[in-house]
Structure formats: structure tokens, C-alpha cells
Amino acid sequence: MLTTGQIAPEFTLFSSDKKEVSLADFKGKNVVILFFPMAFTSVCTAELCEMRDNINVYSNLNAEILGISVDSPFTLAKFKEEQNLPFPLLSDFNKEVSQAYGTYYETFVMNLKGVSKRSAFVVDKDGNIQYAEVLESAGDVPNFQAVQETLKGM
Questions:
Q1: Is 44 a catalytic residue?
Q2: Catalytic residue among 13, 23, 44, 89
């Protein structure tokens, strides 16, 4: 499990726009990385819409937001469009990044194998993890207040 102070694992994933996006692209910026189990499910939709509805809060805290799930880029594109999400959604279809971040269900509901756990990481402009929250229950959402407080203190 990743903890505060560790260097965030580097990654390059395809976005819902079918473009490669790397964590290194955000060097010099604060980043909130949200792993979520599956697009179009109720809690995931509520979580990402919460971020959408508070995008100005994160912008004012100089933070970029990245959403990551094991869904395909095509599924994520439809989800992003339907929910009008103003931040990149990245496909960890091969499940490597979810595993690197320790946010991975071997077996999820309905015996689905290899799904991202709901989690939140705040990575500072130097690539260090300043906040890490991995939730065991997919019905829970990250502590957005703690994420915002972490960003305020950076």
C-alpha cells in the first residue's frame, strides 16, 4: 500500500479521448488521482459528479483531477460525455496502475475479476504522495474534505 511521502508510481494510460496521458505530464502541478470501480454505476457517478460540481474548488487549489478505472477508453468516453466531466478519465484496462497503487480488487461483485478499488491520492508538484485513501467498500466515497485540506496545506 502506498503511503504519504512516497513517490507516486509513474504511469501512462489512454484517456477517453484516446490520447496517452502520463503522470509526468503534470510535473509541477498538484494532482488528485481518483480510482473508481466502474463507469455508469451509482456511487461512481455520484463521486465524479461531486468533483465536477466542485471543479472550481480544486482549480483554486491549483489541482488537476484524473479519474482512473479499468473500463475501456470507449466506455469512459461515453461516461464522460453523459456526465459532462471536465477532467480526464483514464483507462487502466490492463490493470497495472491499479495494482501499482495498491487499489485493486482481485474479485469484485458478481465475481468480476480485477477492478479498481475506490481511492483518492493527492500527488504534489514534485510527484510525492501527500494523501492516500483506499476504500475497501465500493459503497463508500473518499473524504473530499481531507483531500481539499491536504491541497490547502501544500
A1: yes
A2: 44
